[in-house]
Amino acid sequence: RKEVEQDPGPFNVPEGATVAFNCTYSNSASQSFFWYRQDCRKEPKLLMSVYSSGNEDGRFTAQLNRASQYISLLIRDSKLSDSATYLCAYPLSGGYNKLIFGAGTRLAVHP
Amino acid sequence: GAVVSQHPSWVICKSGTSVKIECRSLDFQATTMFWYRQFPKQSLMLMATSNEGSKATYEQGVEKDKFLINHASLTLSTLTVTSAHPEDSSFYICSATAYNEKLFFGSGTQLSVL
Fold this sequence. Notes:
A: mainly beta; 6-stranded mixed β-sheet; 5-stranded antiparallel β-sheet; B: mainly beta; 7-stranded mixed β-sheet; about 0% helix
């Protein structure tokens, strides 16, 4: 299994739709996970951190399934501005902020 | 919030030349900086970890003599791509942290080698 694996998409959804992405990881010992949003040729921006079973922030919900070693990101009521690439990440051994990233899932929200 | 400034944003250079990319933490002391490379539609690949005042630790497969990293102060790390070739064309991005607190990313540098 790759260290971090994501469905590259693209996910093409209409405004208002609910969309979910999964990210599988190989390191069962990892305690923290992150979802980042990245726009084309820009730096990734932290969207959510996941330390236990899940986290919710407005329209965004992240969940962690340790048994199956995946995290998910749910976006409700999609907006045009949600169009971006969503990266999951977690720390490599040797440092809390030494992150390994997935290749990202592209989301395109259309009118 | 804290800011990490990365310069230049874009650079185009001829094959065989060297390019230096700077990463500065503007309002905090970055004890550790990380350098990543991202090819189109691929993930950010960690190249090296840079701790202030010590030699950088490179990830497997990254040539330390080609990608020179210097972290001489708590606010500045530089990545020099030596003798750049077209296959080095990529998006390079740094991130910085102070004592493993929050992580902040620079805005990235798009390198195009002709």
